[in-house]
Amino acid sequence: MEATLNQTAVKEITMVAISAIRPNGFNPRKHFDEASLNELADSIRQQGMLQPVTVRPTADNGYELVFGERRYRAATIVGMQEIPAIISDLSDEEAEEIAITENLQRKDVTPMEEANAYQRLMESGRHDLSSLSVQFGKSEAYIRTRLKFASLIPEIASLLETDEITVSVASEICRYGEDIHERIDLRRLDTGQVVADGHIELHPVR
What is the pTM of this model? Predict the structure, then answer.
């Protein structure tokens, strides 16, 4: 259940038309569990939206969502016309940093979402392994492993995204180059048939 708003935050809240808000591309989370969203929608129907989303103004007099996409989506399911929002003037860099940081702290973020988020923060030039480790409370080895997942070919990344292969199997695959990735027998991977010693079944070279 969402936390009740504190008194200092209430002063900054504005009701914003949901039609004026658009999601942003900074959110590392691309998949939202439908059952979880419906549960949140039921809670909002009963109690209202207890915690605001954060948005920033756009050039077309609308707003871009910075974080709170689950609440935004659940409010859409409910059919709300307006939702409580905190409006913040943020640069692209600030909005990206906030969106990624807030969403990576959720427990249901997938390994691939983590990988792509860490990769974007590294590519921004504002972070290195050490600063990411401090900011997210993860070891450098953990972050380094996740960053390797960004090099997986889409077919294998999709299997990891949907839990059809484990993190340990994906880590083993990352030891090989893309040319090997393309030869991996995906039919065996997606049924869990990977030999315990790390052997990867390959298609024969044609």
Answer: 0.65
